Amino acid sequence: MPTPIGNIPASSIPAARAWILAGLQTQLAADKGVLVCLDEPGPYQPDDIIAVGDVHQQYNPENVVGSGGAYWLREDYTITVTVDVYRGGDDALGVFTRARQLADLVVAVVRSDPSLGGAVDRGKPGMVTHTSGWAEDHKGRQTVIEIGIDCLKTL
Question: Domain of 149: which CATH number?
């Protein structure tokens, strides 16, 4: 007989994303020049943006049913947080430095509570990529840093 759906635990992904978003908004509340948002920003796009975005999750058969007991679930996923900094002109070092400052803040927020407010068993900064260069309009410099927050939750 199939498992009753009501007994299967809900994913921790929404709570983990919400905790990261709230933590960043709290830390940057006084800095009105930074937009902290969930997913892609809307039409208001200041020069400094932090977006809590995509989630990459992989299900494996042993993660659905395993030795954890009845209705056990293990979630492994990565939440991508994107820092995007733009400045007009040709100050490549200044743009990169500001982006790195904001990326360091993202890492500090996650490290301040690796349970992400109890949403996960372990959350930690993982893979980070830096992309820098001229903005598409060639009127300034842009640095984009993507930070993968690796999460693990057993339910």
Answer: 3.30.70.1700
Per DSSP bridges, beta strands 74-88 and 48-57 are antiparallel
What's the rounded Cα separation, in Å, for the pair 111 and 107?
Answer: 6
What is the DSSP-derived secondary structure letter of residue 5?
G
pTM: 0.89
For 70, the domain range is 5-154
Q: What is the pLDDT along the chain (155 residues), one digit of tens a residue?
A: 555 666 667 889 999 999 999 999 999 988 889 999 999 999 999 999 999 999 999 765 454 555 556 566 788 999 999 999 999 999 999 999 999 999 999 999 999 999 999 999 999 999 999 999 999 889 999 999 999 999 999 87
Tally of structural domains, the chain: 1
DSSP strand pairing (140-154 vs 74-88): antiparallel
